Prior knowledge:
Layout lengths: L2 E4 L1 E4 L2 E8 L15 H30 L1 H14 L2 H14 L3 H17 L4 H22 L13 E5 L4 H5 L6 E6 L7 H9 L3 E3 L4 H4 L5 E5 L4 E4 L3 H22 L15 E6 L5 H6 L5 E5 L13 H14 L5 E4 L26 H7 L1 H14 L5 E5 L5 H20 L10 E5 L2 H5 L1 H4 L5 E4 L1 H9 L17 H16 L3 E4 L9 H8 L3 E4 L4 H9 L3 H12 L4 H13 L2
Parallel strand pairs: 3-4, 4-5, 5-6, 9-10, 9-16, 10-11, 11-12, 12-13, 13-14, 14-15, 15-16
Antiparallel strand pairs: 1-8, 2-6, 3-7, 7-8
Helix pairs in contact: 1-2, 1-5, 2-5, 3-4, 4-5, 9-20, 11-13, 12-13, 13-14, 19-21, 21-22
Amino acid sequence: MSQTLTGIGASSGIAIAKAFRLETPDLTVEKTTIEDVSSEEEKLDSALAASKEELEKIKEKTKNELGEEHAEIFSAHLLVLSDPEFVDAIRGKVKDDKVNAAFAVKEVSDMFVSMFENMDNEYMKERAADIRDVSKRVLAHVLGVKMVSLAEIDEEVVIIADDLTPSDTAQLNGEFVKGFATDIGGRTSHSAIMARSMEIPAVVGTKEVTTSADFDTMMIVDGIDGTVIVDPTDEEIAAYEMKQDEFAEKKKEWAKLVDEATESKDGHHVELAANIGTPNDLEGVLNNGSEGIGLYRTEFLYMGRDELPTEEEQFSAYKKVVEDMEGKPVVIRTLDIGGDKELPYLDLPKEMNPFLGFRAIRLCLEKDEMFRTQLRALLRASAFGNLKIMFPMIATLDEFRQAKAMLSEEKEKLKEGGTEVSDEIEVGIMVEIPSTAVMANTFAKEVDFFSIGTNDLIQYTMAADRMNEQVSYLYQPYNPAILRLVKSVIDAAHQEGKWAGMCGEMAGDEVAIPLLLGLGLDEFSMSATSVLPARSQIAQLTKEETEQVAERALNMQTSDDVKALVEETFIDK
């Protein structure tokens, strides 16, 4: 008898195949006292070297297939392997305590994981996950245990696991791995984002898929509706094969819209843009018919290296993007480091809550020479296309004025030196702090545009870490409180003749799109693979009807009420 599990649809599509259960190999360790310390040190060095070599290969494969942004996850893993605090602590256990290398790796990694997890902020939790992933790899080499290689799968399967690490996901071969389902995880986890880029159907957070299915159990993974069917009946398989065909036909229809403008049924035009991390992501942007780039995350230029990027390195990257977009708008966000992104070479102070700490524009205004170098590179690149500059994490008008003053100073210096700089650069801010959204009418008099960063705006407004499973129910994009903040930002922009965009996950959300269209959003920026489905959806909506639904949604009481209204009006028709 079939069993239906409900989770979170993390990557759209339908997968029908036998289950491949990803099991962690037995890495049980016993403590032993050793006599030959040098032999044990050699064993440790060999394991560290093998782990580094594997991670370098995974990083390169990910960079070639998914782009540099996803590959940076493995830069973090490699940093763990070269972190003297971590590695020297293991060596110390072997040398001073005369314990076996496997026990030393296990004890030190457990200590670091526990320490970071108990610091209660997202950056540290991700750091803990990195250490857990890396130490498991090192430990396997020390013990001589073969890790399961998902890259070696050569038959059609659905992966089931408690969770998939980024290194697991990066090894998936889409020819054979038709989908995956996990017990834990959320839509914004590394693995979910990578699955969307790879177009592998995925459902996460089912809570019980690993206890409900075993090797070779037939499975259906519906990444559209967020359901998993274990041991389906012949009738269910036939029904989902039909749904699979319908989805494939939809994708063919979406492909026809690559060169089309984005217009509602009654002729209202909006701009559909893409979010990118590096120039390597441009191919996906252009192939999916994006009308611009709504968010270029420049911090990836700064990560996975030992020193700050030079002005020339930055100029080259920005110039390539604006040139390749051939006059289409490119919104480049200045450095957003801090929070979940750390640069070891800056030696920043450790913070209890880095998401609310010394990050983004706060860091840049303090380290002004680093900031000015980036501003000069951006200004020089502006001569080669339609470049717009966006400052992140703006909380006060003074911060915006300081940043803009630095930009103006650098612009004048460049022009005086004979460097060509565009006089048409729009300068805007990300709206991701609730106080900024509340004061949008004041900011709108001085900025050229707003881009609403909903990932942070939602978690700050709801006081709920979106990656914390215990409070994930509070990550509510459709909550009337969020919708009212979004409306106030859009209205404030329009009142001053400015435009308002959105670059958070919400911009590409099927339920949110009709609401945002009705609220008057001008630009939707999303992952490149979401652009064509969004264009197709908008073409079936009328501005008038979405306005009526959005008005009703603003006065509803709960997020579930809003979602039900949108689904019954636009999606379940």
